[in-house]
Amino acid sequence: MIKAIIFDFDGVIVESVDIKTKAFARLFEHEGKVVVEKVVDYHLKNGGVSRFDKFRVYQCFVATATPQEEIAEIIKQREMTAYFKGVSGAPKKKDVIVREILDGYSLKPQEVIYVGDAMSDYHAACENSVRFIARIQDYGSDGLRSNH
Questions:
Q1: How far apart are CA 56 and CA 13, in angstroms?
Q2: Are 7 and 63 in contact (CB under 8 A)?
Q3: Can you list the pairs that 64-72 forms with residues at least 24 positions away whose Cβ atoms lie under 8 Å?
Q4: Do 56 and 3 meet the contact criterion of CB atoms below 8 Å apart?
Q5: Helix, strand, coil share (%) of the chain residues, nearest 5
Q6: Secondary structure E strands in 8-141
Q7: Which of 115, 106, 1, 103 is nearest to 60 (CA)?
Q8: Looking at the chain, which terminus has fewer C-beta neighbours within 10 angstroms, N or C?
Q9: What span, in angstroms and rounded, lies between the C-alpha atoms of 1 and 6?
C-alpha cells in the first residue's frame, strides 16, 4: 500500500495541471485493481475537492534542488505548508532527501512513489528503490529535464 508520495517542486507542483481520474488510477496501478477502483471511486465522489485535500490522505513530501530557505518561504507564501509532512531542498541531494524520508518515517521503498520531471528525480528514486512517475514534458529526447 502506498503510504507516501514525494514530489519534485519545479515542473511538478508549480506547473502541474489538474490531476484527473486517469492520473489517480495510474498512480496506484501497481497496487492492483481493487485499490485502483477505491482510489478512482474516492476521486469521483470528491470531484469538487482540491487535489491537495485528496492527497492529504497520504503522507506527502517535497524533494527539490531549490535551496532550503527559498523553498520553505515559497511553500509558506503559497499557503501549501499544511499539505506536506516535509519540505527539503539544497544543499541536500535528492537521493539523500528520499533516504531521510524513508528512514525518518519508517517507510519501505515499496510504500513510496516519487513524482518528478528531471533525471535527478529519477536517479533519486532508483538509488532508494522507490517507484518513479515521470511528468513528461518536451525537454529533450527522453522528456525529462537533465539540468539539475
A1: 15
A2: yes
A3: 64/8, 64/9, 64/10, 64/88, 64/89, 64/90, 64/94, 65/10, 65/89, 65/90, 65/94, 65/120, 65/148, 66/9, 66/10, 66/90, 67/91, 68/92, 71/9
A4: no
A5: 45, 20, 35
A6: 59-67, 86-90, 112-116, 131-134
A7: 115
A8: N
A9: 15
Closest to 52 in 3D by CA, of 88, 25, 16: 16
| 4-17+57-134 has CATH 2.60.120.560 classification | no
| 43 pLDDT above the threshold of 80 | no
pLDDT of residue 28 exceeding 90: no
Task: Kindly report, residue by residue over 49-103, the tens digit of the pLDDT.
Answer: 666 676 666 688 999 999 999 999 999 998 889 889 999 999 999 999 999 999 9
